[in-house]
User: What shape does this take?
Amino acid sequence: MMDSKHISIPLYDQDFALWIETTVNQLKSKNFTELDLENLINEVESLGRQDKRELESRLITLFEHAIKRRYVPMTDCYRGWENTLKRTQKELKKNLRDSPSLKNYFLAILNDCYQDAVDNLQDDYDINFPEHLPFPETIEVLLNEKFWQ
Assistant: This one.
């Protein structure tokens, strides 16, 4: 039977913040032999997935509010929806400015994100929203114009 006092728990599992600090210091000092490569690779891959998830989430939010603004006749809500639209456009522009290589991904997920937005809204409104994306399919228009009007 193994004594639990002798089990070595990796720093990554003990203290994530300390693991990051240690890993950064090892990289800066070019101490590559001590690097926890497995967890470092997993964390870097996770960053890429996180960027994509954030882009998807913001695009769904953009479409939800654009759909409501265009198809839901609640004029007292228009200002709030438009504020969310403008804020979301700015955030999406920042995402694509920081990671321009995600532009192709952005275009590839437009229809899926639109469908997710419709699915999210369908139960809340007794409206038949368009089945297919009724908005322009260009980054320039979606992020810079009032395409929902």
Observations:
- Residues 51-144 form one domain.
